[in-house]
Amino acid sequence: MASSTYAGSSSSSQQARIVGGVPCEGPGPEVMAADTLEGDDVVNHEGENLGEIKKIMIDVQSGRVAYAVLSSGGFLGIADKLFAIPWGALTLDADHKCFILDADKEKLENAPGFDKDHWPAMADVTWARQVHDYYGQQTYW
Fold first, then answer.
1. With contact defined as beta carbons under 8 Å apart, do 128 and 6 qualify?
2. Averaged confidence pLDDT in the chain
3. Which CATH number fits the domain that encloses residue 38?
4. The pLDDT value given to residue 132
5. CB within 8 Å of 42: residues ≥ 6 apart
6. Which of 25, 39, 68, 92 has its CA 20 to 30 A from that of 99?
7. Domain assignment of residue 4, yes or no
8. How does DSSP assign the chain, residue by residue?
9. Measured in Å, how far apart are the chain's first and last C-alpha atoms?
């Protein structure tokens, strides 16, 4: 491992964008419980389904959302490939209750991924930079 942790080491912020949605009483779409987003579909700008959000990963030390874990390619949870998507690479479409990722299916198929039994060390700076670079995102720390 190249370095221990990057949490909270800078004040820059890479946040998901929000489109649609009407401000209302109660939570959403600006502030929501993470588990309400789990299971949401992820599509690209062409409307192709890329998968669904399995987990929202929090950088505990900074209090920021670091990644959404996208599940893709399996059937009923079997043989799914997982991808850590930097939070800033996603746009929440509040009207359609999905996320938009600016990536075609081929880009996702070639993305660094992992399986449910072999997660990467997400606090590893080298790994995190590679993931952010792959999706064209600045690191949030």
1. yes
2. 84
3. 2.30.30.240
4. 96
5. 49, 50, 51, 52, 53, 68, 70, 85, 90, 98, 99, 100, 101
6. 25
7. no
8. ---S--TTS-------EEES----SSS-SSS--HHHHTT-EEE-TT--EEEEEEEEEEETTTTEEEEEEEEES-BTTBS-EEEEEEGGGEEEETTTTEEEES--HHHHHTS--B-TT----TT-HHHHHHHHHHTT-----
9. 18
Q: Flag whether 33 is in a domain.
A: yes
What pLDDT, on a 0 to 100 scale, did the predictor assign at position 10?
34
Q: Determine, yes or no, domain membership for 140.
A: no
Share of the chain above pLDDT 70, in %: 81
Report how far residue 31's alpha carbon sits from residue 140's, in angstroms, rounded to the nearest whole number.
19
Count of structural domains within the chain? 1
Peptide bond preceding 29 in cis form (omega within 30 of 0): yes
State which residues form the domain around 98: 17-134
Q: How far apart are CA 84 and CA 67, in angstroms?
A: 6
Give the Cα separation of 87 and 64 in Å (integer): 9
Tokens of 79: 């043989």
